[in-house]
Every structure is written in structure tokens, then in C-alpha cells.
Amino acid sequence: MITPTGLYRARETPLHHTPAWFKVALLLAATVAVIMLDDPISSLGIMAACLLLLASTQPPARTTVIAMAGTLVVAALTASIHLWRGDWWRAVDVTADLVAVVALALAVAASTSMTAMLDFVSVMARPLRAVLPPETLGLMFAMMLRALPEVAEIYLESRQAARARGFDRNIRAIVYPTTTRTVGFALDLGQAIHARGIGEEGDQVDAEPETAPGTAKRSGRRSRRRDRAAS
């Protein structure tokens, strides 16, 4: 099974056999740690550990390289601001923190199937059962994961089309097609969900108590009639 992000592959690695809740907790803990620590040495150590953990999951090379390349571009832009101010210590710290968090997030995505992640979301949503069914929240999470790569692909196609027409510097030539196609994708997804009857189970459950009293009354009348006939 491959997730919509294109990272997950079934492997026999320690992180693949680790429960989803532990990996999510590890990601949250690492994120908090890199934010709280203001030491480039510690940040570089955490970054190295996260990169090694990512490599241990044996992720697909192309998708991982693209994700890390984008991260390095953002990190370089952020670091350049601090370097311009003469704060190279902070530049190293910010760059290492960003690379570490993204690498660990990719490691979690590469080692966790969609089924395991949705089960984790449904379990975490059980305290909200009175407000929102856990299955619905899991569906919303799956739709979000499905929409993110789709919107990114739409944006890349719109940018390539604008570049082919010589409008690569025109923001409107990229934003308008991207917005229009994204709305169309959302409408198609909503129609597919409605056609499968997803989300209508709650209405059926709510309707059952209304019909149950009437059914009970009719059953009671039939029982009394049978008793009279027998007597």
C-alpha cells in the first residue's frame, strides 16, 4: 500500500514495526525539543539522528530527495537572513532544526501505512465521540492527506502551463487555474463521497428511534388481538 504522499513502502525495519502512536509522539517530542533548545550543537546532533532514522526506513529516493531539496531551499533562505544580520550561530541552529523536523516527519510517513494512521486518528478522536464520530474525523484526515499532493500537482501543472505560454512571471496565470481546478477537485470528491453514502449513517441512526415506538405499538396491538382470539 502506498500513501497519497507516495512515501510509504512495506519494509522490514524497526520503525515500520513501531506503533503509529509512538512515532507521532516521537515527532511531537522532537519538534518541541528543537524549538526549546537554542544550541546549534544539540540541533546538529538531533538533525543527524533524524536523517539516520529516515535512511533506516528505506524511503523512495525520488520523493525523499524532492522533499528534502525543498526543505533545504527554505532553510537556506531562512539562514541567509540570520547571516545577513551576522548571527551565524542562529543560522546553523534554525537550519538544523528545520531539516531535523522534516526528516523525522518523512521517516514517520515512510514507515506508517494509511490504515495505521487512520486507526490512530480514530482512537485519538474517541473522547470527541459526542461531538464528532471518530470515523468521520478519520475520513476528514484521509481526505486532507489525499488533497495535499493533489493540490501540489495542480499547482505544478498550472505553473508549467503558464511557463509554456510565456507567463511564468504572471501570478494570476498560475493562481487562477490552480484555484479553479482545486475547487473542481473538491466538488468531485464531495460527489464521490455522497454517491457512496458516506456520512449518512448518522441520519439513519437518528431516524431509528422515531420509527421504533410506532413499531412497538403495532406489535403490542397484534399481541393483544392474538390473546383475545385465543381466549
Number of H/I helices? 8
Cα shape: globular
The CA-CA distance between the termini, in Å, is 66 Å
Radius of gyration: 26 Å
- Share of helical residues: over 70%
Give the mean pLDDT.
76
- The total domain count is 2
- Pick out the low-confidence regions: 202-212
Count of individual beta strands: 0
Taken in chain order, the helices and strands follow as: HHHHHHHH
Strand content: under 5%
Q: Class by helix and strand content?
A: mainly alpha
How can the largest sheet be summarized?
A: none
Structure description:
- This protein has 231 residues and is mostly helical.
- The protein has helices at 20-36, 40-56, 61-84, 88-111, 114-124, 134-164, 172-195, 201-230.
- The chain has two domains: 1-124, no CATH class; 130-200, no CATH class.
- The protein is built from eight helices and no strands.
- Helix 5 (114-124) packs across helix 6 and helix 6 packs antiparallel against helix 7 (172-195).
Please summarize what this structure is.
The chain has 231 residues and is mostly helical.
Features:
mainly alpha; 2 domains; 8 helices; globular
Helix/strand layout:
Elements: H1 20-36, H2 40-56, H3 61-84, H4 88-111, H5 114-124, H6 134-164, H7 172-195, H8 201-230
Helix pairs in contact: 1-4, 2-4, 3-4, 5-6, 6-7
